[in-house]
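Sanity check. The docking grid for zinc ion depends on where the pocket ends up, so I'm generating a full predicted complex first rather than guessing from homology. Inputs follow.
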Amino acid sequence: MNVDSLTQFIENDRVKTDAESFETYGKDWTKHIAINPIAIVFPKTTKEVISLVNWARQNKVALVPSGGRTGLSGAATASNREIVVSFEKMNRILNFNEFDQCVTVEPGVITETLQNYAKDKGLLFPVDFASRGSSQIGGNIATNAGGINVVRYGLIRQWVTSLEVVTGEGKVMQLNKSLVKNASGYDLRQLFIGSEGTLGFITQAEIAFTRPPENPTVLLFAVPELDGVMKIYHAFKKRFSLLAFEMFTDVAKNYVMRHTGQGEPLEESTPYYVIIEIDNTSETEIEAAMEIFESSMENGWLVDGTVSQSAQQSQDLWRLREDITEATSAWEPYKNDVSVRISKVPEFLTSVDQVLKSEYPDFETVWFGHIGDGNLHINILKPANLTSEEFIKSCHRVDEILFEKIESFGGSVSAEHGVGLTKKPYLHHTRSPEEITYMKAIKAIFDPDGIMNPGKIFD
Ligand code: MLT
Ligand code: ZN
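Predicted complex below; grid placement will be based on this.
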């Protein structure tokens, strides 16, 4: 395929075909997937995106949307001679509507840039996760991003008030136009959120901000038994509107400590840790937290704990959880990102523990996750004596067992990382044949030529 004709509507220097660009833009964080793009393009306007889609339809070439490339399911990977459409040059914050507390952005705006923009206005963009420094809003919307504050603020779905999209037919639509109430039929905005670029491109979004929490305070607890994790959750949830409730294991903590040089956060070392964030609006709040801490201690659910006394201490405690991905990345972790409804988490954790112990006796497993919203991240680290292929093969075998289990719990094979390529073979464990048939039919309407990120989510 000759991509030279792309320069009819996109300047020469925004069409790249060199190996270095392919290596950088051809994939996301799922680094083990082989890539094979034919070009990387960097549109600057919606008009250019429309021309690109029309060109792709005529030339029968597939397009892969690309944001900050922090995805973990291969959804932004070009392995089949596609053109990667990077949105990094569509990165302007266009307009702040003070009355509605909404901001209009282009898809390439970095998550942290938007968080800081909201902060400057005395407000909060509440979607937050460790890759905030490089992930982009368009990618967040395309995967319905979650993160550490879902337990209070929900997923990004809740904060997108309006979307401009270019469909796989090259048609532009303004979806919902930031109406709070809109009972005029199907909400196509919500359909595009989480569609992983399979229906069209997100070219603009309006995002709502909210009031920031008051004096957020972080608590870290050492938990001796798995069983204690959700008991502590329940006790805190009854009293507080939690900002975050996360767990990680001692294995995860040790990797972070080695990576960052941080010391032990608590005197007692236990197999599990829970990190909680609450608003600390008055003495009463901290007193209530201490009461729950003491009764949890009496019940044996926890054996040690600490409360942050400053923003710096909060950040240090959060690093124990947030730096896990980076601290383990050298071991080529095989990632699972699963969820069950919250009430089923205690039983689910015990069950996953059994599967991991019996199926991965020789592999190191690192667990952590947004357990307050039923989302567990299970990372299997590659032993040095196995090749990547051998390792992935073993993990796939265990996936079958793990996902059978997920299905029996009515859970999801992907809580927040998306289906992309890596979870595609397992979609049927979460979605019924009828659902998958309807999803394919919906794609065919928006993308009749199958040029929009084909092969992602389903074939
Ligand atoms: C996280 O919660 O830290 C992210 O989902 C990243 C990961 O799972 O590695
Ligand atoms: Zn996560």
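Relevant for the grid: The chain has a mean pLDDT of 97.
Also worth noting: The CA atoms of residues 255 and 327 lie 6 Å apart.
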